């Protein structure tokens, strides 16, 4: 009986690990798509990783801003052309799943901008699985 219980716990844990691994890869794939979109100058496609909601939270040097459309407008204002946007590179520092449908990601971003000068910083992203799809629901970039 103890062996059967152990086997059940082991299989449940293995299944959970497999799902987390799949979820992590899905999130990393979204970040890869965002990087490509940014480097092509396509902010609308870059934003597809974000939750299209008025509750989306973006925290930057000017404070907390809410809303998908507000975030997109701010990106367009701050990065009006390819020279300003530069080439984006993300480095992932940590990916953690504190709950089944929640992911906390810490990373570093770098923009290579030959004409404007390179800039870089760190970011934290709170991801949530909504209707079976992963979205960034809060972004804190510095």
From TrEMBL:
Domain DUF4440 as annotated: residue spans? 27-134
Domain of life according to the entry: Bacteria
Q: Which Pfam families does the annotation name?
A: DUF4440
Do you know which SUPFAM superfamilies this protein is assigned to? Answer: NTF2-like (SSF54427)
What protein name applies here?
A: DUF4440 domain-containing protein
Name the source organism.
Pseudarcicella hirudinis
High-level lineage:
Bacteria, Pseudomonadati, Bacteroidota, Cytophagia, Cytophagales
